[in-house]
Design a protein that fits this description.
This protein has 383 residues and is an alpha/beta fold. 30% of the residues lie in helices and 23% in strands. The protein folds into two domains: 211 residues, Alanine racemase (TIM Barrel), CATH 3.20.20.10; 128 residues, Beta Barrel (Lyase, Ornithine Decarboxylase, Chain A, domain 1), CATH 2.40.37.10. Strand 8, helix 9 and strand 9 form a beta-alpha-beta unit. It binds pyridoxal-5'-phosphate (PLP). The site of pyridoxal-5'-phosphate has 12 residues, from helix 11.
Length: 383
């Protein structure tokens, strides 16, 4: 286990041994959940989407935190994430988005997971692999990804309801945008969902949970709440929209990305001429960080990228390596082997913001979280 709880001071050996870690603020996760809960009507369930290991923050710890707050269930795309949540002792429903294959049937049953079904072929393959199935029927309302088309959905629901071994717990869709989307598309998707539910009700095959709202939906379209919502990015503090109808006050869960100076030296003349790379100077003090692009840092050093050492900003130097990255310590002459270095977050009175990192690293906020690596230990603040 690579989780660490402070301030109980049980710092795991991984942090000490590796010298690099992420600080994840579970207080922010709780705040973000409470903000959402306060804006939803009491009968709307919250299935927290914790895909990609809880957006890099650790599905297990985030799930345990949200379960304690009263979350109704979780949704993930990989069986591994579901397993890590179950291993935390969380017994709430877990919906698997498309991704798991029927070969995983025995594990899915042992972990008591709910699968997604988008077609009659999927239904039959899963039935052949499991003795009893909990399922959500997945519908594509216009995102052109997984899910039955609105026209096929009626037939699929009818087929799923026919089988005693299949418990249809819900019907859901992912309301989202493509680069080509127009503002009216969200409302078209809502109208399709309403039509599907109306038809299903009249035939007696309307599951008790209808769900289509992720972060953008809960922030902008309260009329998409239905019986449950499954936002994800929201819990780690990423608002998906500039014009929220629900003004939630969200806080970022990723507090810092920290590493250590694993080498410091002055470039004397015995090394020969310094490389002809911007930033290298004769007589400079060179530092080496114990993190590289294999640890989720960008593949090439962006111009202007800095880190904080001894409370001062210092320039990162190209190129990056799998496990190391150079830094110009000339203006931080007291820096020493073993000093903590902050790539995101605060140290002293300096602060490197999420926005700065996202724009310098050539990504966006969701890309920053999605790029967090599972092998980097996490320190959980405010457990
Ligand atoms: C990713 C995802 C979500 C959550 O989306 P956010 O934008 O992170 O809130 C919800 N439902 C499905 C099917 C998804 O794939």
């Amino acid at each position: 286990m690579t989780t660490v709880m402070i301030p109980s001071r049980t710092v795991h050996a991984d942090v000490i041994v590796r010298g690099s870690w992420y600080e994840i603020d579970l207080g922010a996760i709780r705040n973000n959940y409470q903000q959402l809960r306060a804006h939803l009507s009491q009968n709307v369930k919250i299935y927290a989407c914790l895909k990609r290991n809880g957006y890099g923050c650790g599905a297990a710890a985030v799930a345990a935190t949200l379960a304690a707050e009263g979350a109704d269930g979780f949704a993930v795309a990989s069986v591994n994430d579901a397993l890590s949540i179950r291993n935390m002792g969380v017994a709430l429903p877990i919906l698997l988005y498309p991704g798991a294959m029927p070969a995983a049937g025995p594990i899915v049953e042992a972990l008591d997971l709910t699968i997604s079904i988008s077609s009659i072929d999927e239904l039959e393959q899963w039935r052949a692999a499991m003795t009893r199935i909990r399922a959500f029927i997945k519908v594509d309302l216009g995102f052109f990804r997984a899910g039955a088309t609105p026209m096929e959905t009626e037939r699929l629901l009818a087929a799923a309801y026919m089988h005693a071994d299949v418990q249809v717990e819900g019907v859901y869709a992912h309301m989202s945008e493509l680069p080509s989307s127009r503002p009216s598309d969200a409302l078209d998707q809502l109208a399709r969902m309403q039509a599907i539910l109306g038809a299903a009700s009249s035939r007696g095959v309307r599951p008790s949970i209808a769900m289509m709202s992720s972060t953008e939906g809960v922030l902008r379209h309260p009329d998409m709440d239905f019986d449950a919502v499954d936002p994800g990015a929201l819990f780690v503090g990423l608002p998906d929209t500039d014009e929220p109808v629900r003004p939630l006050l969200l806080r970022p869960a990723l507090k810092s990305i920290c590493t250590t100076l694993v080498a410091v030296k002055r470039l004397d003349g015995s090394l020969g001429a310094v490389p002809e790379i911007p930033g290298f100077k004769v007589g400079m003090t060179l530092g080496v960080l114990g993190m590289g692009w294999g640890d989720g840092l960008p593949r090439s050093v962006p111009n202007g990228a800095e880190a904080i050492v001894r409370g001062r900003r210092a320039r990162l130097l190209p190129p990056t390596h799998l496990e190391h990255l150079r830094i110009d310590l000339t203006d931080v002459p007291e820096a020493r082997f073993g000093d903590q270095v902050v790539l995101l977050g605060g140290q002293g009175d300096q602060n490197i913001t999420h926005d700065e990192v996202a724009s310098l690293w050539g990504t966006d906020m969701i890309g920053l979280y999605g790029g967090l690596r599972d092998h980097i230990p996490k320190i959980y603040l405010n457990p």
